[in-house]
Amino acid sequence: MTAAERRVQFGAHPVAYPLVRGLGLVYPVVRVPRVGVVVSDAAIARQVLSDPVSFTKTGPGSPADLWTPVVGPRVLLNMEGAEHAELRRKLGGLFTARAVSSLCAEVAAAPMAFLSSELRAGRPVDVVSVVKDLAGAVICALVGLPSADRAELARAFAAGTAMTSMVRLGRPRLTPSQVARCRSVLADLTAPAVRAYADGDPSTVPGRMRELGLTESEALGAVAAFVLTGTETLVSYVPRLIALAIDTGWLARLSLDRTRLDDVVNEGLRFTVPSPVMLRSVARDAFVGGKRVKAGERVVIATISCAKTLGPFDPDRPHSPALRQLWFGAGAHFCLGMPLAYAEIRTVLETLLGLDGLSIVERRVARRVLIPAYERLVVRCG
Ligand code: HEM
């Protein structure tokens, strides 16, 4: 691990990270009191994720336990079976190559113009705040609002993370007051989506969802799912990728050979794992890597440990089939927004390529947050 990346991970979870990583080095599967059955092996993790009959997202200790009181029962990440597959099928139209590149071009234009012009003028830029603008612009697009100014983007982003920041691994449910706060944030966030859905204008995402055959409540649920899953992950990942690429000299290499961009992005995902754990509830007695588990237990897939076995950041090394894209999940719940995530990540990285002598002038780690991240990462040219 680069020293900087270790500080990011330990800054978020000074106790849990070393513990989970330490356990993972010794045990591929281990039962940890008050946490669950922790899986640290990629092949076993893939088996669990690919068996939705035995391991679900809807039982005790699962994501449904956390989110259903806030978002209702039909939000993809708390659904299983035929209903889940049908909702995913309807939403697929939002993430085609064409839809994603037009959404990304629309949402990224202003933040990328700001990033590029400030750096070209020789001024320092905090990459974290630029990626927050980008994530805020995505939220605005999802709820059908034009992303007008930076203050508005910041409000949208803050509203989105107000919900995710309440989650802790050792606490399988939100408290009633957290649920109330999340519900009020969500009602504010989705109010424009209700109007955009009613207007049915297919140039807005809610209007497009209506065209794809989603009911109003499915469309609002999908917006909530996108905000919960697609905001903090990106704000965590993109600055960490940029820091890694600068620290290891890969950003300069990419400026000379852009064909390696996807290798760097994929290895960066493997090395940082912006979605460090996945949760499942055991629906019926089963075995996980030879260990018996009982219905009602919680399985914690420590994706971070599964991915780390490969060692230091090295975009030249291929990923094994068991590991391939595990950071986006596997099986029926595989990340629906992956094409959009890639489009946003590539856009930021490509904006930085070709700028002379980009270096990091300040970095500050975010402390005690759910997803490890930089609080500030200031870069400058020359
Ligand atoms: C680097 C960025 C991202 C990472 C690492 C990531 C990772 C993941 C992972 C690991 C899952 C599966 C969780 C599980 O099985 O328990 C997931 C699901 C999901 N992601 Fe992403 N994600 C990212 C960005 C996005 C974006 C930008 C969006 C959309 C705006 C998005 C939308 C979703 C949705 C809707 C699901 C739920 C799918 C389902 O349950 O069927 N994600 N993501």
Report the total helices.
Answer: 16
* Total domain modules: 1
- Unreliable runs: none
Structural class: alpha+beta
Ligands and ions found: protoporphyrin IX containing FE
If classified by CATH, what would the architecture be? Orthogonal Bundle
Strand order of the largest sheet: 1-2-8-5-3
Task: Describe the overall structure.
- The protein has one domain: Cytochrome p450 (Orthogonal Bundle), CATH 1.10.630.
- It is built from 16 helices and 10 strands.
- It is 54% helix and 11% strand.
- The chain is globular.
- The model has no long low-confidence stretch (mean pLDDT 90).
- Helix 9 (176-199) packs across helix 10 (205-211) and helix 9 crosses helix 11 (216-230).
- The longest helix has 24 residues, at 97-120.
- The chain binds protoporphyrin IX containing FE.
- Protoporphyrin IX containing FE (HEM) is lined by residues 76-77, 88, 225-226, 229-230, 233-234, 237, 274-275, 278, 327-329, 333, 335-337, 340-341.
- Residues 76-77, 88, 225-226, 229-230, 233-234, 237, 274-275, 278, 327-329, 333, 335-337, 340-341 line the site of protoporphyrin IX containing FE.
List keywords for this structure.
382 residues, Cytochrome p450, five-stranded mixed β-sheet, 10 strands, binds protoporphyrin IX containing FE, 16 helices, globular, alpha+beta, three-stranded antiparallel β-sheet
Give me a quick take on this structure.
The chain is α+β, with helices and mostly antiparallel strands. It contains 16 helices and 10 strands.
List the helices and strands and how they pair.
Blueprint: H1 3-12, H2 16-26, E1 29-32, E2 36-39, H3 42-49, E3 55-56, H4 63-71, H5 81-91, H6 97-120, E4 125-126, H7 127-142, H8 150-164, H9 176-199, H10 205-211, H11 216-230, H12 232-247, H13 250-256, H14 261-272, E5 278-282, E6 286-288, E7 291-293, E8 298-301, H15 303-308, H16 338-352, E9 359-365, E10 374-380
Parallel strand pairs: 2-8
Antiparallel strand pairs: 1-2, 3-5, 4-10, 5-8, 6-7, 9-10
Helix pairs in contact: 6-7, 6-16, 7-8, 7-12, 8-9, 9-10, 9-11, 12-14, 12-16
